[in-house]
Amino acid sequence: MSIAVDYVVMCLLPHSLVLMTFCFHHAATTCSKHCYCSESDGGGKTVRCSNQQLTAIPQDIPNDTRRVYLDFNLLTSIPANAFAGLSHLAELDLSHNDISQLQPGAFRGLSSSLQFLDLSANKLVHFTADSFEGLRARANLTNNPWHCDCNLQMAMPRVDLEPVSLTGIVCQTSDPEEMSVQGLAFLLEPDVDLCVVMKRTTDVAMLVVMFGWFTMVISYLVYYVRANQEDARRHLEYLKSLPSRQAKSEESSTISTVV
Ligand SMILES: *[C@@H]1O[C@H](CO)[C@@H](O)[C@H](O)[C@H]1NC(C)=O
Ligand SMILES: *[C@@H]1O[C@H](CO)[C@@H](O)[C@H](O)[C@H]1NC(C)=O
């Protein structure tokens, strides 16, 4: 608002012809309802919607916009395809909002153009790789209450953001808690593995299953040997009852080697 008032005051005082053309130029390019637009020398619009108490992203941002400033508003979530029409967008400032949710595809359509994305000073807790699909921008992710856990660690290989962006993920909480990564940009700590507990649980599960199988195999073997011993004993008794002594000794010797 103050910017607008300044413009009006400036434009009401016709100091010089230069200043008047300056005012004219800016007044002529006011675009979106809550925003101020300006055309930069290099071409492409800059749309400033800072500090407007916005709770939703304006839908009337011109499609040739290069820079959008939406900082210091009340945004809580970025829906899918929120900026999909803005194929020239190079810089997007969403800092100092209450954003806790970036829906999958939130930045869809920006992957080839976006160079800088400011998400600092928001309420981001969980990193959702699906939201950043294909983005190669440099992102400012600082000043968010990041929860560092195995999910976050697993998401990292799927992220194309400029690697320096990840230094902004400073953990406020973590799981497991005792890994004490709070206050660290843990993705840069080579020795920290937040998936280690999960791996340990999987190992234990594997051991239990293997032990179960082993027990079953052993019980079966014991049962099999016992049943065969019984058979062998009965067979032996049968042989003993036979009159031929030679057959008996032959059979009993083979049986004793078997048993
Ligand atoms: C912007 O939209 C207009 C009309 O909807 C279209 O003619 C133009 O090609 C679009 N420009 C860009 C850069 O997408
Ligand atoms: C990221 O944002 C914070 C707070 O908004 C700011 O202080 C810092 O300078 C920014 N860092 C970069 C690299 O732009």
Automatic annotation (TrEMBL):
Domain LRRNT: 30-67
SUPFAM superfamilies linked: L domain-like
Domain of life per record: Eukaryota
Organism whose genome encodes this protein: Hippocampus comes
Signal peptide per UniProt: 1-27
Keyword match Transmembrane helix: yes
Keywords of this entry: Leucine-rich repeat, Membrane, Repeat, Signal, Transmembrane, Transmembrane helix
Keyword Signal on entry: yes
One of the record's GO cellular component terms: plasma membrane
Protein name in UniProt: Leucine rich repeat containing 3Ca
Membrane-crossing residue ranges in chain numbering: 204-225
